[in-house]
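Reopening this ticket.

The earlier resolution said the output was attached, but the attachment link was broken on my side. Pasting everything inline this time so it's all in one place.
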Amino acid sequence: MDHFEVNILGCGSALPTTKHALSAQVINLREKLYMVDCGEGTQLQFRKTKLNFNRLNQLFISHLHGDHCFGIPGLLSTLALLGRTGEIVIHAHPDAEKIFRPVLDYFCREMPYRVRFNSINPGAHALIYEDRIVKVYSIPLKHRVPSCGFLFEELPKSPHIIREMVDFYRIPFSLITSIKNGADFVTDDGMVIPNHRLTRPADLPKKYAYCSDTAYSEKIIPIIEKADLLYHEATFAQQDIARAKETYHSSAQQAAMIARKAQVKQLFIGHFSARYPDENILLQEAREIFPQTTVATEYLKIKL
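Inline output:
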């Protein structure tokens, strides 16, 4: 299945509430799953989505505050109980392995799969992961501890074959791949059928940017520019902007300003402070600046 979907598992901030789970998302890209952040309770949230645990191989941790990483040991332990054998890679600040390796060694000594830590520099914009369908880049953020967001950039797809033309010219199946890669077709009598008559352009690659936690920072704009979807923390309303500055978080208005200046197609906001029983105040403030804003909620699925 050819899709790019963001699943929200949790969108609350550090103080647990009965309304919101702690930070965690799963990106479903063509049935491969990539987790971003893993707050306490993430494994339960994951199960409620009915996503396939076996398709998860990569975890990306934005920073080492508990509401973004305390769920790691529980998730990994559950994967072992489910009989997982394939490797899991955790992309995080170098201190992540120092913190979690002893925990895993103590509680998960007989784990049937390997956990590998890939150290990243939160202060640098760099390619940190790549496979056949996506590249993932770090986005340096401005927070009280080293923190980074993540840009998921889909790799270009092959052009679409026009089935009617394939049938008309009786093109052998063995040549389909080369035609997708740009080759023309030569008939038995020497006629050259140009590639553009046999294919339609592929859909444009999509980009998803995840930015939490961070104070307002325009330095991220060139990195996330024209993303199809931006998740940006909106911990506070503008009336509490002093608290936002003190804790290195953003207001909903600031998130919307980033979205507008970066010319993204859609914004959704999250990481809500427990002080707001109703996030509509944050949504209204953001929409005044960037109308294409949505509030994140648990189990929300957003298709790019």
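Reporter confirms the inline version is readable. The chain has a mean pLDDT of 94. The chain has ten helices and 18 strands.
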